[in-house]
Amino acid sequence: MSELVYGTYILVWPALTLGVLAVICSAVVKDALQARKSDSDMV
Questions:
Q1: CA–CA separation, 19 vs 13, rounded Å?
Q2: Measured CA angle at 24 (ends 19, 26), to 5 deg
Q3: pLDDT tens, position by position, 8-36
Q4: Reduced to 3 states, what is the DSSP secondary structure of residue 30?
Q5: What is the dihedral of CA 19, 23, 43, 41, to 10 degrees?
Q6: How much is the pTM?
Q7: Which sign, positive or negative, has the C-alpha torsion 12, 17, 20, 25?
Q8: DSSP letter (8 states) at residue 18
Q9: How does DSSP assign the chain, residue by residue?
Q10: How far apart are CA 10 and CA 17, in angstroms?
């Protein structure tokens, strides 16, 4: 039973990391497109 819990715990972290990375990347792409549309710099 404890192996199942540990295995699930270890496998959840890559999924959470991938989700956070996807949110960050989509926000950057959205900001880049918005900056290109309004002819302004991202920084």
A1: 10
A2: 95
A3: 989 999 999 999 999 999 999 999 999 99
A4: helix
A5: 140
A6: 0.71
A7: negative
A8: H
A9: -HHHHHHHHHHHHHHHHHHHHHHHHHHHHHHHHHHHHTT----
A10: 12
Do residues 31 and 42 lie in contact, with contact meaning Cβ atoms separated by under 8 Å? yes
- Report d(CA 39, CA 29) in Å as an integer: 15
Tokens of 33: 């497109």
CA atoms 30, 36, 37, 40: torsion sign: positive
Local structure of residue 43 (DSSP, 8 states): -
